[in-house]
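# step 3/5: fold
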Amino acid sequence: MSYFESRLKININDFAEIERKLKFCQELRITNLILEPKNDILKLNSEFKQRISKISTLNLYYRINLRPNSLNDLKKRIQPYNNFSDIISVESMDKNIQIQAAKDSRVDIISFSDQNIIKTISPGIISLTKQNKSFIEFSLAPIMTRNQAVQSRYLRSLYRAVQLAMQLKVNYIISGNFDDLFKLRHPRALISVCHTLLSMPLLSAKKAFSENVITLINRVHARQDKNIIESGVKLLNEGEL
């Protein structure tokens, strides 16, 4: 089974740092990575991706995370992403932004990785993402903090949110989302954390780091296939079976 770290943040202006992170992941045998630029940019150009591919043999994918400060800001920010080739996630405490993002087929993930944002998750948002076949994201980084009070509060919120997502059978992924290089863990270790601390069935925890992420990536690929009318419906060319 292929496991993913679904959110590794990179500074595109510090290529030496990117190279260190990729080498460290390789040493940890994390072979599948989704990279997210820290910089507030619209798109990663092909030249940048090619440069990264030359220094790494890892399976690399990319995502852009939007943090809109209003509903109008979201509508403006999302405009350039028709048929976009990378994953798009939205992160906001504003429920109206969450609702709009969950309705928008260009948005692949509604992220609840932040310790404050996760408190805003609701059955309504989960239902909307389920209808649109998009994804909810949770992250484990905040439970690794040394501040025990913060750790305890986040763990309780994360536990409730994950149980709700499983109960409502929504698509979800779990990322490490570690900023500190030396806090990075192989997804197998994070699966054990989810199983032990979040009471997730082992198979569900494994899927959050593997099959669900592959489904997310396939969703993005399908978005660019002009023959796909909607999920599960594709126009076949002559000779295709």
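# step 4/5: annotate
The chain is about 40% helix and 15% strand.
# step 5/5: archive (pending)
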